[in-house]
Amino acid sequence: MTETTEPDVTIDSRDATCPGPLMDLIGRVKTLEPGTVVELQTTERNSTTDVPEWLEEAGHDLLGIDERDDHWNIYVEVN
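The structure assignment produced for this chain is given below.
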């Protein structure tokens, strides 16, 4: 993710167990317009593989995954 891209929507799914973060993302993406950038915050390591797999199937773009000290931020662009 580039430093200049700011998310339009942040989903805080930290401390949710799998598949909670992915389900939170799926539910929210359904309500968003194409071009919207979403930041998913998660402490669930499986999200770093589950989310990109779902994005590929669903036709959305993975912009990047940033690892923080205690969680990951996964950036998505809705198509």
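Interim note for the steering committee: The helical segments are 20-29, 47-58. The first helix runs from residue 20 to 29.
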